């Protein structure tokens, strides 16, 4: 019954998003291709080739999907691989970094029966793999009814989303019965999927593919060359800020940086906002504290710069290599935090705020390993960073433990691929 209500609601609201679609195409000049895909016009699978369709909502999920796609390519060398995303930034990341790994990149169709049905008819996949928490009811149920093997990879349910799923458990029980296997990141995530209706015998704890990706991303980075390219002074300590997301958070970090400079006068900062359009706000936060930041898009400066704002796309992962300490954004305001695996893979100690609920398991592992610390105020942030900057032995031990933690948690991508292979070919 709820599926009828769900589809009726989507149909009744469809004029609104159709108007929005036309506005983006006509007024803002957005790609017609993307909206064609959203109406089900995905690139058709080549005749005679079997297809695996992987969906990742945005940048973070696309990056997490990279090692899985590599494992799928090795496990299914003859298959056509299609990757869809929901956001333009995710799509751009996929095209930029996965062009040689996947055969086609597109946008996820809107979850209306006609669009999903059209997409499934064109793609005709053997398997549909959705990353993390992309529980699109029509997509999963219609794929399953057509004989497509369906999977949730890197599955997780956040503290924030769990109550809503529980409220509609009776509906999501129907959806999750249409999933052949749920590959959960942790025991806690597995319990949560079962709590909202997943059959327990279809839920597997396999780990987090982001550990696999973090290890790969940290390889072959020449920190000295990157430091010169960024224009940082030689031998000065560096603080890397990853993915800040709100004005109040940026004010807190900028204030902490000014206070830290009183004890570490040559301390540099490389700051990457979560969204490029926030670069100006980050620059303003630093200017209010008396600094003159250099924008990355200005190129390599002629003279060394101590405050650099990354107003570029996709560089943060490698830039952690030049840092001495990393601060994780999105965690000093109630937004759930950001990925802390990239700095850990580079062997960098991490300080984050109290709001890490979107990465609770990884953050807990990092704290238990002695490579991450929580700061709830400017004073605590200054205290933790000061201790790390002032103790070289502590940083060296944290570097060793961080790399060991990432190495010990690898292998999720291969385990997921084995489950997919056994199900598809079984």
Structure description:
The protein is an alpha/beta fold and 426 residues long. The protein folds into two domains: 38-207 and 411-425, 3-Deoxy-D-manno-octulosonic-acid transferase, N-terminal domain (Rossmann fold, 3-Layer(aba) Sandwich), CATH 3.40.50.11720; 222-408, Glycogen Phosphorylase B (Rossmann fold, 3-Layer(aba) Sandwich). Helices cover 49% and strands 15% of the residues. It is built from 19 helices and 14 strands. Strands 3-2-1-4-5-6-7 form a seven-stranded parallel β-sheet, with helices on both faces. β1, α3 (59-75) and β2 form a beta-alpha-beta unit. The radius of gyration is 23 Å and the shape is globular. The mean pLDDT is 93.
Descriptive tags:
seven-stranded parallel sheet; Rossmann fold; single chain; alpha/beta; 49% helix; 426 residues; 2 domains
Which residues sit in consecutive blocks of at least 5 with pLDDT less than 50?
none
Classification by helices and strands = alpha/beta
Helices, by number, come to 19
Approximate helicity band? 40-55%
At the fold tier of CATH, the topology name of the largest domain is Rossmann fold
On the 0 to 100 scale, the average pLDDT is 93
CATH architecture of the largest domain: 3-Layer(aba) Sandwich
Q: Please report the total strand number as a whole number.
A: 14
> Roughly how many Å is the radius of gyration?
23 Å
Instruction: Please give the alpha-carbon distance between the first and last residues.
Output: 33 Å
| The level-1 CATH class of the largest domain | Alpha Beta
* Largest sheet descriptor: 7 strands, parallel
CATH H-level superfamily title of the largest domain:
Glycogen Phosphorylase B
Shape label = globular
Strand order of the largest sheet: 3-2-1-4-5-6-7
> What is the total domain count?
2
The percentage of residues in β strands lies in 5-15%
